């Protein structure tokens, strides 16, 4: 998949987190005590499994990208949750998003990057929410669509674009909701916030919406590929 230029490629892995919940052991072994404790506090087994597997997969992918042992991959979270690598990985920008038993891991090198994945669900009344929170032009786009699935899909795509932009900027989604990211055709890179950031949709397939954002007028080339957490984390 191609976007346009900010230097090197943005790499995005689409990670399948599904499978027997009892197979989480190898993933948990790759995590820190803090990550395991955070997962243990989640009452929902799907969310708990997704956290364990997505963090383990991210650690493996980052280790491969940086050519470091997985044990040397650590990160801290910024004020709005954006992760920043520590230690030997410091300076490599990356981001993680998960929805259900699916995750996206994006690596932008030295350029800030944000990624977001949204399972398509109604969020209440899509048109009412768009009119309340989004840019007027975006609400008008939803109003022009048939009620039902078409509006849900459009709202989730707009939210994915805005969330990816907010993550790239290290901000909070609430501060980005009123900015218009809906003008360009799906899949086309679009500049947002002047020339500061660009957002592109990802070919995520039915039932989901996804986008990636980075600095510059365009996103640069996007290297998008799919993988399975078991291939990364479970010994053969």
Helix content: 25-40%
- SSE series: EHHHEEEEEHHHEEEEH
Uncertain parts: 1-7
Number of helices: 7
Task: Describe the main β-sheet briefly.
Answer: 4 strands, mixed
Estimate what percentage of residues fall within beta strands. 25-35%
- Order of strands in the sheet with most strands: 4-5-1-10
Question: What is the overall shape?
Answer: globular
Tally of DSSP β-strands: 10
Mean pLDDT: 88
Radius of gyration: 18 Å
Terminal CA distance reads: 31 Å
The structural class is: alpha+beta
Textual characterization of the structure:
- By secondary structure, the protein is of the alpha+beta class.
- Helix content is 32%, strand content 25%.
- The strands form three sheets. Strands 4-5-1-10 form a four-stranded mixed beta sheet. The protein has a four-stranded antiparallel beta sheet with strand order 6-9-8-7. Strands 2-3 form a two-stranded antiparallel ribbon.
- α2 packs antiparallel against α3, α4 packs antiparallel against α5 (136-143) and α5 runs antiparallel to α6 (149-169).
- Mean pLDDT is 88; it is low at 1-7.
Can you tag this structure with a few keywords?
32% helix, 4-stranded antiparallel β-sheet, 236 residues, 10 strands, globular, 7 helices, alpha+beta, single chain
